[in-house]
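DM from R.C. (forwarded with permission)

"hey, sorry to bug you on a friday — could you get me a structure for this? deadline for the figure draft is monday and I only need the backbone to look sensible"
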Amino acid sequence: MLDWIKDNSTAFAIAVVFHVLFLVALLVNWQMDKPDKIILEQGDIIQVSAVDANSYDAEVKKIEQQKNAEQRKKAQAKRKAQELAKKKKQEEIRKKKEKQRKADELKRKKAADVKKKKEALKKAEQEKKRKKEAEKKKIAEEKLKKEKLKKEQLKKEQLKKAEQEKRRLEKQKKQQQAEQKRKAEADKKRQAELKRKEQRDRAERERRSKGIINRHVVLIVQKIERNWRQPLDVPSGLECKIEIILLPSGNVVSVKIVESSGNQAFDRSVETAVRKASPLPVPTDSVIFKEFEVMRLRFEPGSN
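My reply, with the result:
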């Protein structure tokens, strides 16, 4: 029933209004049918016919019943009107709530749409960012790959160059070793040649020096003999060994007998002859002179 009223609220309202108007018309008619009060003026003669008491009570009761029925109808109409107003109010509240619900639903829908759009926008941004990051990562990986390939190629080239340099250095080393060996052999040969030459030169120098020394020794002995005077009572055939210290100029620094003849007079005469012969004829070559700085002679008069 309530569902029918909700679905046909306009028709129901018209029916209620119609019933109310009908009840009001009945009441007005009832009032008009009531007998007017009879006002008696003094002196008038009123004739009243006898009325059946039962009929009157029945009529009154009928009127009372009608009145009660009308009152019940009014109360019912009022109750229905209140119920209708209550239902109308409830309907208004329901509609208001429904409207609010729809507004809230629309608001939620709009919020959901906004949220969805935001999420879609955020997702699009994230996707864009992801694609950008992926592209960036791809570019970085390609760059890294290229750099790695370049490094590998560079490493290969470096290894190749290192191997070439190693072979070149090994070849150079072998060439250097061969050159060093050749130079060493040449140097050894040259050194041997120089040594042989030096030996020849030394031998030549020694030969020449020996000749110079011998010649100067003879000259020195001859000069000493020229300055020697044989002492009296000294037999012939005596000899002694003397040590003379000389300066480069030939001057005698000192003279001494290192092996005596056994005759002091003879020994002293030899020492005197050496001093008198100063300066002695020594070589001008400083190297050869070293042989004459401290020289020892065996003095044998008349042996030369």
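R.C.: lifesaver. The longest strand covers residues 252-259.
me: no worries. Residues 227-299 form a domain with the Fusion Protein Consisting Of Minor Coat Protein, Glycine Rich Linker, Tola, And A His Tag; Chain: A; Domain 2 fold (CATH 3.30.1150.10).
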